[in-house]
C-alpha cells in the first residue's frame, strides 16, 4: 500500500493508503477526501480533481501529458505544480506523496 497525504485549502491533512495501480483521484474518492469532485470519473475530461503536487514530489510524479495540460486550462488557479489527480498513478515510487487541494474545483 502506498501512503498519500491530501491537504485541504484550509490546511487539514488527510493521510490514506491506496493500492498500486489506482489513481490518486480514486484513492481520494474511496476515502472521502473533501475537495476532490471527480465529475468525469477519472477520464481526464474535466478538471475537478485538480491538485498541487508538493515541490519535493514533482520530479517523481512527472509532467502532465498534452491531454492533461489541455484539461488544466479549465482548472481553478493553475500553478506550475498543478496536476489532475486522475492522471497520477499510485505506485511504490510515490509512497509518501503530498498533494494540496485548491480553494475550489473548476
Automatic annotation (TrEMBL):
Q: Does the keyword Metal-binding apply?
A: yes
Record's Pfam families?
Fer2
Looking up InterPro entries in the UniProt record yields: 2Fe-2S_ferredoxin-like_sf (IPR036010), 2Fe-2S_ferredoxin-type (IPR001041), Adrenodoxin-like (IPR001055), Adrenodoxin_Fe-S_BS (IPR018298), Beta-grasp_dom_sf (IPR012675)
Q: Which Gene3D superfamilies match?
A: 3.10.20.30
The record places domain 2Fe-2S ferredoxin-type at 2-105
State the needed cofactors, names only. Answer: [2Fe-2S] cluster
SUPFAM superfamilies named in the record? 2Fe-2S ferredoxin-like (SSF54292)
Which of UniProt's keywords are assigned here? 2Fe-2S, Iron, Iron-sulfur, Metal-binding
Q: Which family does it belong to?
A: Belongs to the adrenodoxin/putidaredoxin family.
Name of this protein: 2Fe-2S iron-sulfur cluster-binding protein
| Species assigned in the record | Paenochrobactrum glaciei
Q: What is the lineage of its organism?
A: Bacteria, Pseudomonadati, Pseudomonadota, Alphaproteobacteria, Hyphomicrobiales
Amino acid at each position: 500500500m502506498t501512503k498519500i497525504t491530501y491537504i485541504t485549502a484550509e490546511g487539514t491533512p488527510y493521510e490514506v493508503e491506496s493500492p498500486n495501480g489506482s489513481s490518486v483521484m480514486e484513492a481520494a474518492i474511496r476515502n472521502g477526501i473533501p475537495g476532490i469532485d471527480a465529475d468525469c470519473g477519472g477520464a481526464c475530461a474535466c478538471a475537478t480533481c485538480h491538485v498541487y503536487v508538493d515541490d519535493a514530489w514533482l520530479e517523481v510524479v512527472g509532467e502532465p501529458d498534452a491531454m492533461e495540460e489541455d484539461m488544466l486550462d479549465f482548472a481553478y488557479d493553475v500553478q506550475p505544480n498543478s496536476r489532475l489527480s486522475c492522471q497520477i498513478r499510485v505506485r511504490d515510487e510515490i509512497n509518501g506523496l503530498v498533494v494540496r487541494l485548491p480553494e475550489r474545483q473548476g
